[in-house]
Amino acid sequence: MPAATSVKKPASIHKKNQKKSISYAKWGYLFIAPFFLAYALFSLYPLLSTFYNSLFENYMNGLSQVGPNFIGLENFKTVLTQGDLSKYFKNTVIIWLMGFIPQFALSLLLAAWFTDLRLRLKALGFFKTVIYLPNLIMATAFSMLFFALFSDAGPVNSILLNLGAAEPVRFLSNLWTTRGLIALMNFLMWFGNTAILLMAAIMGVDTSLYEAAEIDGATSTQSFWRITVPLIKPIFIYVFITSMIGGIQLFDVPQILTNGQGNPNRSSMTLVMYLNKHLFSENFGMAGAVSVLLFLITGVLSGIVFLSMREGTLGKGGGKR
Amino acid sequence: MRTLQKVISCGLALLITASVSACGGSKPAQPESQAAPDASAASSEAPAGAGSSEKVLRIYCWNTEFQDRFNAYFKDKLPADVSVDWVITPSDDNAYQNKLDTDLKNQASTADKIDIFLIEADYALKYVNSDYTLDVRGDIGLTDDDLKDQYKYTQEIATDGNGKLKAVTWQATPGLLAYRRSIAKDVLGTDDPVEVQKQVSDWDKFNAVAVKMHDKGYKMLSGYEDSYRTFSNNVSAPWVDETDTIRIDPNIMKWVEQTKEYTEKGYNNKTKLWAPEWNADQGPAGKVFSFFYSTWGINFTLLGNSLDKPLAEGGAKEVGNGIFGDYAVCEGPQNYYWGGTWICAAAGTDNVDIVRDLMKTLTCDPVTMKKITEDTEDYTNNQTAMNEIANSDYQSAFLGGQNHIALFAKAAPNIDMSKISPYDQGLNEAFYKSFDDFYDGSVTEEEALDNFYTASIEKYPNLKRPA
Amino acid sequence: MNAENTQRNEKNRLAAHRFFCYLILILITVLCLFSFYILFINATRSHPDIQKGFSAVPGGSFWINLQNIFHDQNLPVLSGIKNSVLVSTGVAALSTYFSAMTAFGIHAYDFRFRKAAFAFIMMVMLVPTQVSALGFVKFMTAVGLRDSFIPLIVPTIASPIVFFFMKQYMESALPLEIVEAARIDGSNEFHTFNFIVVPIMKPAIAVQAIFTFVSAWNNYFLPALLLNSQQKKTLPILIAQMRSADFLKFDMGKVYIMIFIAIVPVIMVYLLLSKYIVRGVALGSVKG
Questions:
Q1: Would the CB atoms of A319 and C31 count as touching at under 8 Å?
Q2: How far does B145 lie from chain A, in Å, by closest CA?
Q3: CATH 1.10.3720.10 fits C66-284, yes or no
Q4: Which residues of chain C does B43 touch, with a Cβ-Cβ cutoff of 8 Å?
Q5: In order of start, what are the domains of chain A with their CATH numbers?
Q6: Nearest in space to B433 (alpha carbons), one of B226, B231, B224
Q7: ipTM of the complex in this document
């Protein structure tokens, strides 16, 4: 598996090979052509056309088409003044934080335990397998399952009643239990992933540092906070930002759990659910405006990720979606 | 460790394979409410048939109700070379209409033409007033004589601005109040529909019974939306005025007031329409006295829910299975209707003859329609046939021997659909869903109204909030 | 550093710590598996049975539920499975192959826009698919590809995240000398890629194939906007459809068995390949 290769290494190889490989440059273009063609056709063009659409009034009134009429930035005005966009942004951030904070804390704890040389836990393979499992589950199926489990007459309530609760807890009619369930699902789906990531980072730390610390009489806890944490800070930033961008895109779980309503009181309606509402009713102008705003939000965040990557803080890191 | 994993996954693999082969092998007892096997064969054949010379009758709808009627009363008359392709999209969140609209717009350019689509009263006008539906008389060829027995209101709502009839229906959907006989006896001292009706004949009396039910540990209604239709059908003006502004009728606010009171005082069970808890309340374990239901709801939903052993598992429709026989119906506090499904012929259909035959059989033929009512207890759109049954000694076993057709026959002529707008489905749904939060106590009335306007404009961008 | 005593104390302390760790780990395991346990139990129970309340032991209606769901003509599960397999396989194949190709292009050749191309891919990596969904759906409708699998499969040729993973892997596992050697043997570049580079990349391709397969299998947003005929729907759409209640007359046994069908294949594959998957995650992850 790739070690923490810095960006410099391949560059130096290239310098060495430059004289010989000049005539092969066209192959480079040829090999990357499919990617760029597909990207231009299926992502870039649709992206630009989305932006273009945001400037028009364009929707269906019953069976008759209204527009497209050019209305400038009118859609943006509507979204920003009447669309409650800030409310949905707030919902998204709150739900994300409710999942992320416990997720990060637990992941760090697990990563520390799993890599603790003195602790030497057994059956690590089993635990790693178990904690990563929820990540692979179809989010729609997972939230449908939670909907069934936590419905007013579902198994969880029947357990609570057996344990002596006076009446069923109406999880999906209450603001914080609804958000809590969404956050819990996100937590379950991602903590294993984060734990394994942090573990890999911790294992990348030079073991001689720990040995030296042990000789100096440092406890496990001390060496964890004084050595490990400072050294793997870059991966913290990486985890934080990727999770934040994932959080901004939160959709499947709340959509299915609340049947697209984002109830109660639209307090679990996320940004992408809001976008989906307009896409679904084929209101192209408004959907376009929401898309552009979403793009700007993620654009700023992506910029931060990109910069932190360029600084070489993220030598490791492959990816999956 | 890894062996264990392998054992588990191999076990699961076996389970799946075994289950797939098992269901290919033995067939379960064919449940009535389930799709008939030949129908499912037809629908899966359809895509293959599209390419060949075989004719395809393509029908758009949102649930299986019409499909059941079609299979039971019309399928035999289909020419042998015609297969049926059912395109079923649930109606939640306008999904059905969105799908239908997209495909109607492509009707001219596609080979897979829609022949028939179904519409509900709540948005009938949208399609009736469009060019996507054919004239039942002029284009399809039904005569005034064919149509004479249908209830007038079922034709009025389906008639466009030029007086052309664009859709027909096999059912009339007057609403009644269905109640549990055993609970009526316990609380009101009688289960006789005439006596019970006297005690719930207006809203004040209805509320008084709710108190009595509560005192004896029962619930008057199951959920928030149960009585919605009785209020929304008796409004004084349509949802949307000439300036595309949403208007909330005072009668709808009366529903809000009543439901809030019922919720706070515990007269209802806080369920939501169609939710599992709501369905369960209609079953053997339910403690709910009454449900507002129209014709189709009694044979389509209430009956299924009343059984202990479901039809799908071979349960019988007979006294002794759950609370079969424990329901009865009376008129209730106010006249209303609920639902109703109209059949439209899509412009561009290449099967006009079949469509005419279908419309004639299911919506005009007194013999077939009388049979539908006798078989399924549904109320059909044929005055002669219905009055015949109403005046006969017909008895519904499910309703403990009551002749409910007589009640329906009395209520049907009173149905008034003149206040319907093309937006009714979306706005009704948005309204009661927004107010769920109010009853749950998570928003104020003003916030619920605000959410209602927001959701409505998301669905219909041309509508406006009142100033 | 004296005496056995300190050592024994240390040992006891460690044992206590270890015990605590196992306790927490077991709790977490329960938390992770609890919902799947109930899923499994309830998939074997009939609707009325489920409504009677929670049970810790399986019921006897597994086959009946399965038969019910397979015979429900309005919920085409078999075609749903078929469609999901088709789309996911297509996505896994195209995205891994072309990402490896793109990574190879940037890794092995020096050309003028090499750095710019790399920077561009890094930049678009974090643009969510949702923001271009509107244009995408309109475009696909315009060219008559709505309700088709092509817009779900072909665009994954450009998968920046898979590309990034492949690039990282190449840097450590693909010395350019191998490519040079192939050139001397007279192999053409395309041939070199297919028959020398791809085999070396097998472990990375396998890991990414699993990830892309799973994420395509689970994908809901775009398929829900694009596919609308019953025969084309994938499993996540069918599950979302079950959430719209009035349509199915709610049979909870069917709901649970449907979820069971949707996630069991993935769990099976995962259990068989978990070692590689966990190792793959350790290489880094971008959350979707």
A1: no
A2: 32
A3: yes
A4: 73, 230
A5: 84-318 (1.10.3720.10)
A6: B224
A7: 0.84
User: Which among B34, B86, B102 has the least Cβ separation from residue C71?
Assistant: B34
Label residue B20 by pLDDT band (50, 70, 90). Answer: very low
Closest CA to B461 of A282, A81, C134: A282
Decide if C172 and A3 are in contact by the 8 Å CB cutoff: yes
Q: Which residues, numbered 156 to 195 in chain C, qualify as contacts with chain A under a Cβ-Cβ cut-off of 8 Å?
A: 157-159, 161-165, 168-169, 171-173, 176, 180, 189-190, 193
3-class secondary structure, B340: coil
Phi-psi region of B352 (alpha: psi -120 to 50; beta: other; left: phi over 0): alpha
CA dihedral B447, B450, B451, B456 (to 10 degrees): 160
* C76 CA: distance to closest CA in chain A (Å): 16
Sign of the Cα torsion C243, C248, C251, C254 reads negative
Gap from B63 CA to chain C (nearest CA, Å): 5
Interval B308-348: pLDDT, tens: 877 766 778 888 888 999 999 999 999 999 888 999 999 98
- Give whole-number Cα distances, B31 to C72, C104, C178, in Å: 11, 59, 66
Per-residue model confidence as pLDDT tens digits over C15-43: 888 899 999 999 999 988 888 888 889 89
CB contact under 8 A, B95 and C244: yes
**Site from B1, B4, B30, B64 to mutate, C interface, most C CB atoms within 10 angstroms:** B64
Q: Which amino acid is at A7?
A: V
Provide the residue ranges of all domains of chain C, joining segments of one domain with +.
2-63, 66-284
CA geometry: angle at A315 spanning A309 and A317, to 5°?
Answer: 85
Q: Which of residues 397-426 of B touch A (CB under 8 A)?
A: 422
The Cα-based distances of C111 to A18, A28, A32 in angstroms read 10, 7, 11
C242-258 residue pLDDT tens: 776 554 456 778 888 98
User: Measured between CB atoms, does B11 come within 8 Å of chain C?
Assistant: no
pTM of the predicted protein model: 0.81
